C-alpha cells in the first residue's frame, strides 16, 4: 500500500493522526519487503586482503612475512606477484568505484609498513601506497574498512614466538597506533585481526598454513589467549588516544560456518551444534562480548587436560584484570561466513594425543551452501552478544572459473535475501555486507580457487582483469539498492 492510499483509508475510517502514521509505517515496511529493498544506511561492499592481491613481495622496502617464507619453502605457487595490485591499484579501485560499492574492505601488510614488524624501521613507500588507496576511495565517497592484520605475521615477530609470546601484544599495539595516527582521519571502520580462529587453529595448529607450527593440543589455545590481548591492546589504544578526534569504530573479524544439528529433534545433536558454535565463534566472541572463555570450553578442555595427567588446563586462564581488559573491546560485530555444516553428537574419544578436535568431540560434515543458515547465525549472534550492529565482512562462492558465473549470482542473491529476512522480520541490525572477493586472487596456496566477481588472468604478465556476469549483476544491486 502506498502512503497516499493510507490517507484515503484514514479519511474513510476517520482514523487518528497516530493511527495514520502507524498505517503508513506498516505500508512502507511492507513495500520494502515486497521489493527486497535494502535499508537506506545499509552498505554493500567488496573485500580483498593484502597478501592475496598485492604481489611485490620484496619491492620498495617491504619485509618478509610468514607466508612469503612458507610458500617459498613449502608451496608450488606463491603470492609473489598475485594480482599485482601493488602496481595496478588504480585499476582495482576504479573497479570498486564502477561496481558501485559503498565500502571496500582491504588489509594493510604489516611488513610493507614495518619491514621487521617493529618501529625500528618505518617504510614511507608502504605508507604512501595505502594512503593513495584510501584517498582514492574517499574521493569517490567509498568507505575504507581497514583490516590491520590479515594472517601475514612478520617473519621476525614469528621467530620471536608470534602469538605464543606476549611480546606480540606490544608490537601489534605499536603497529595499530601507527596506522591510527597515519590513516585514522580517513578511516571510520577498523578491524584489528581477521579470522582469529583460522590463525590459531590452522596457522598454529597445523603444518599446512603459516606459520605451520602444528601445536594442535595446547599452542592453539595459547595463541588465542595472546591474540585476544593483542586485539584488546589495539582497541584500547584507539579508544583512549584517537576516538575523541577520529570518531571511528573498531572490531575484530570473526569467522565460521553456521552449525546446524543433523537431527533438529535430537537434544544430543542440538548440544553438539551449540558446542561447535562455542568452540569456533564463541572461542573469541565470548571473551570480547561477555567476558572470559565460555564455560563449555573451560569444562571440556579442563576435564580432558586433567584426565591427560596435566597439572593445569591446556586452555590458559585469564586473570580478572585480563577479563576486564578484553571484555567490551568491539564497537560492532564483524564476521565472515561461507556456508553451513551439520553437527552430530558422538561419544568422547578416549584420552590420547591432545587435540582441539578431541576437545570439541563433535562430528561435523563438510560445508555446504544454505542461505537460510546466515539468518540463523545472525539471530544467534544477536541473541547471545547483543552487539548493536553487525557487519558481514566476507561472503562468497568459489567455482571453477569462467565469466558465466550464474552459480555465484544465485549464491549471493540467496544470502542477501536471508540477510534482509533477518533485518525486516527478526529486527537484527545488520549494517553492511561485503562480497568475497573483488577479484580472483591467491587463495592461500593456489590460484585455481575462483572467488572473484572479476576474473584475473594469472597466465598474463599484465594480470588482465575481466568482469564476470556476477560483477554486472552486483553492480545492478548496488545501483538499484534491491534484489
Give the key terms:
single chain; alpha/beta; disordered N terminus; eight-stranded parallel barrel; 13 strands; TIM Barrel; 483 residues
Walk me through this protein's architecture.
The chain is built from 20 helices and 13 strands. The protein is globular and about 60 Å long. α19 links the parallel β10 (390-395) and β11 (430-436). α5 (85-99) runs parallel beside α7 (124-139), α9 packs parallel to α11 (219-241) and α10 (196-204) packs antiparallel against α11. It has helices spanning 3-13, 17-35, 50-53, 66-73, 85-99, 110-113, 124-139, 155-159, 167-183, 196-204, 219-241, 243-246, 267-280, 282-290, 295-307, 320-326, 356-360, 371-385, 406-424, 469-480; strands spanning 43-47, 103-107, 143-149, 189-194, 249-255, 258-261, 333-336, 340-345, 362-364, 390-395, 430-436, 454-456, 465-467. It folds into two domains: 1-35, no CATH class; 41-480, Glycosidases (TIM Barrel, Alpha-Beta Barrel). By secondary structure, the protein is an alpha/beta fold. Helices cover 47% and strands 14% of the residues. The model is unreliable at 1-15 and 19-34 (pLDDT under 50). The strands form three sheets. The protein has an eight-stranded parallel beta barrel with strand order 1-2-3-4-5-7-10-11, surrounded by six helices. A three-stranded mixed sheet has the order 6-8-9.
The CATH superfamily of the largest domain turns out to be Glycosidases
Major pleated sheet: 8 strands, parallel, barrel
Number of helices: 20
What would you call the shape? globular
Annotated CATH topology of the largest domain = TIM Barrel
User: Reading side by side through the largest sheet, how are the strands ordered?
Assistant: 1-2-3-4-5-7-10-11
Oligomer: single chain
Output the CATH class name of the largest domain: Alpha Beta
Strand content: 5-15%
Amino acid at each position: 500500500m502506498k502512503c497516499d492510499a493510507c490517507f484515503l483509508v484514514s479519511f474513510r475510517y476517520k482514523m487518528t493522526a497516530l493511527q495514520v502514521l502507524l498505517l503508513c509505517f506498516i505500508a512502507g515496511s511492507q513495500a520494502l519487503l515486497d521489493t527486497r529493498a535494502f535499508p537506506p544506511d545499509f552498505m554493500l561492499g567488496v573485500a580483498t586482503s593484502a597478501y592475496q592481491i598485492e604481489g611485490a613481495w620484496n619491492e620498495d622496502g617491504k619485509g618478509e612475512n610468514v607466508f612469503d617464507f612458507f610458500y617459498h619453502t613449502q608451496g608450488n605457487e606463491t603470492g609473489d606477484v598475485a594480482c599485482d595490485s601493488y602496481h595496478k591499484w588504480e585499476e582495482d579501485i576504479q573497479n570498486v568505484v564502477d561496481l558501485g560499492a559503498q565500502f571496500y574492505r582491504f588489509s594493510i601488510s604489516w611488513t610493507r609498513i614495518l619491514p621487521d614488524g617493529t618501529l625500528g624501521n618505518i617504510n614511507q613507500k608502504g605508507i604512501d601506497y595505502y594512503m593513495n588507496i584510501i584517498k582514492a576511495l574517499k574521493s569517490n565517497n567509498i568507505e575504507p574498512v581497514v583490516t590491520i592484520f590479515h594472517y601475514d605475521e612478520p617473519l621476525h615477530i614469528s621467530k620471536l614466538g608470534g602469538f605464543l609470546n606476549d611480546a606480540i601484544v606490544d608490537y601489534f599495539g605499536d603497529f595499530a597506533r601507527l596506522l591510527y595516527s597515519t590513516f585514522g582521519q580517513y578511516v571510520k571502520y577498523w578491524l584489528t585481526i581477521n579470522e582469529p580462529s583460522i590463525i590459531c587453529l590452522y596457522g598454529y595448529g597445523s603444518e599446512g598454513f603459516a606459520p605451520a607450527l602444528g601445536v594442535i593440543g595446547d599452542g592453539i589455545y595459547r595463541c588465542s589467549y595472546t591474540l585476544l590481548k593483542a586485539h584488546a591492546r589495539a582497541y584500547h589504544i584507539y579508544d583512549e588516544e584517537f576516538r575523541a578526534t577520529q570518531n571511528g569504530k573498531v572490531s575484530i573479524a570473526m569467522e565460521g560456518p553456521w552449525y546446524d544439528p543433523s537431527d533438529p529433534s535430537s537434544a544430543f545433536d542440538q548440544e553438539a551444534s551449540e558446542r561447535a558454535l562455542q568452540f569456533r565463534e564463541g572461542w573469541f566472541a565470548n571473551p570480547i562480548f561477555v567476558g572470559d572463555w565460555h564455560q563449555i570450553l573451560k569444562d571440556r578442555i579442563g576435564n580432558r587436560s586433567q584426565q591427560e595427567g596435566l597439572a593445569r588446563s591446556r586452555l590458559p586462564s585469564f586473570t580478572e584484570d585480563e577479563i576486564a581488559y578484553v571484555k567490551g573491546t568491539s564497537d560492532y560485530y564483524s564476521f565472515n561466513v561461507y556456508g553451513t555444516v551439520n553437527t552430530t553428537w558422538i561419544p568422547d574419544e578416549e584420552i590420547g594425543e591432545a587435540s582441539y578436535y578431541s576437545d570439541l568431540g563433535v562430528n561435523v560434515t563438510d560445508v555446504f551452501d544454505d542461505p537460510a543458515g546466515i539468518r540463523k547465525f545472525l539471530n544467534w549472534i544477536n541473541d547471545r552478544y547483543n552487539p548493536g550492529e553487525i557487519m558481514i565482512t566476507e561472503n562468497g562462492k568459489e567455482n571453477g572459473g569462467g565469466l558465466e558465473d550464474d552459480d555465484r549470482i544465485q549464491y549471493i542473491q540467496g544470502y542477501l535475501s536471508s540477510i534482509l529476512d533477518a533485518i525486516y522480520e527478526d529486527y537484527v541490525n545488520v549494517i553492511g555486507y561485503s562480497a568475497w572477493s573483488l577479484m580472483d586472487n591467491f587463495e592461500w596456496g593456489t590460484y585455481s580457487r575462483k572467488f572473484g566477481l572479476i576474473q584475473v588472468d594469472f597466465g598474463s604478465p599484465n594480470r588482465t582483469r575481466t568482469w564476470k556476469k556476477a560483477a554486472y549483476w552486483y553492480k545492478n544491486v548496488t545501483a538499484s539498492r534491491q534484489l
